[in-house]
Amino acid sequence: MNGKVYMDYAATTFVRPEVVLAMIPYHSISFENPSSLYSYSDGNRRAIEEAREAVADLIGASSEEIFFTGGGSEADNWALKGLAFSRAGKDKRHLITTETEHHAVLHSMEFLERMGFRVTYLPVDSEGFVSIDKLKEAIRDDTLLVSVAFANNEIGTIQDIEAIVEVCRDRGVLFHTDAVQAAAHVPIDVKSMGIDMLSMAAHKFYGPKGVGALYVKKGIRLENLIHGGGQERSRRAGTENVASIVGMGKAASLASEEMEFDSLEICKLRDRLIDGVMSIIPHARLNGPVGNRRLPNNANFSFVGIEGETLLLDLDDAGIAASTGSACASASLDPSHVLMAIGLSHEMAHGSVRLTLGRSSSDDDVSRVLEVLPSIVERRRAMSPLWDDYMARREVL
Amino acid sequence: MLYSEIVMDHFRNPRNVGEIENPDGVGEVGNAKCGDIMKIYLRIEDDVIIDVRFKTFGCASAIASSSMATEMIKGKSVREAAELTNKAVAQALDGLPPVKMHCSVLAEEAITKALNDYLGKKGRPLLPERNQNQLAHDHGNR
């Protein structure tokens, strides 16, 4: 990575060379429109179907239950709006989700509220887990769908999906999960887990950007969001992004083979990073759970007295690419809704940094972060009135 | 890059960081909810600011605004310092992104508050201050 330490794999991964090689022919040699009738297009059509099978295999689905989309956000939008619109005018007009979902889900839900649907936003506990009892209480006779992310994109919390599905199944409610961060990183089997719909995005597991997939269990009817031609069995119009679909398929098949080993290796690095930061830097907080209930690649910290963008830019100066849930790094200026939902104070939510690891992460990368982060934190705290106040309060107590 | 070279220079190498013991004037503005707190300390002799220090919790823009504002009032008279505007601070930084302009407002505010602390102690008329609630409101809605 050119001497740089990249620790923002949750934002996007690089495209694996094997994936790039698989894609190249479909940009040039096999460029025909897969919907064309002449025989040249047969190879393209076949390549799409092979990719569909690879994606289906990754999550234990049947290939006819996989629909390619323009990414994870589109998959989330389609699952929620498509199902809601298919039931418009019927008696099921209530949906349930959590306060910590990705904006693709939250903003879709807000849109549906404007369309007259009712939505319940479940709180989470201090580690980001949904309460099964609160879910049970929230389900009503008119509840159509429950949507809970498989794993949280900011703090890495992996939900107890089987327990959530069991509640949904008992009450006859459909279940969708945004698995954009989880797919290809942790084992998922939609059949044994009882998942009705699942969203994923290729660029989170070493595939290209701009392509994703929605798993829809056979028999579930969704209203189309994108109208036009008859692609994707007349459920999602638009000429197929063949090269990217092929890339997603290749990334999925590589993940099926290598996920277990990769995750174990990345977990070791993650734990070294977390243990190191927590032991070296005083008054640091790990956001999210510990151990195997956390995504293998995710570490998220808050540091009292420092604003997250400051950390991000200082890390960038040290050659480390990271992410923050801090307000000032975005246009909204509101701190991360996820960090606020797990009960962090505003100052702690503002002072967060997310470090996410991947296939190219190394011990040296972790060492580099552990080498530079303590001095960055110390320097910025020394110029923070909030840190002074915090320490003064501690002395009083 | 979101910021100008001058902003990044003041962020990386902030001038006048620190505190002044028994300052002649001190002003703190902002709140943790918005993610910015600025505290300005003044040493004033014969109505001239002979030293100024700051401590800031906030983003790069907040730190750079504090740093630049302290540079701009150092050695100035109280009257001259009172005329410092957030626009002048932002201009000196070669501009700030629109969403970050509130940081320069905070710098102006903190200085006004510190000057008023000094003027109050001397029993002199105070400078008009912006309404903090209004500022917080503006901040949250940008």
From TrEMBL, chain B:
InterPro entries: NIF_FeS_clus_asmbl_NifU-like, NIF_FeS_clus_asmbl_NifU_N. Residues 123-142 are annotated as: Disordered. SUPFAM superfamilies: SufE/NifU (SSF82649). Residues 3-123 form the NIF system FeS cluster assembly NifU N-terminal domain. Pfam families: NifU_N. NCBIfam families: NifU_clost (TIGR03419). This is Fe-S cluster assembly scaffold protein NifU. It comes from Dethiosulfovibrio marinus.
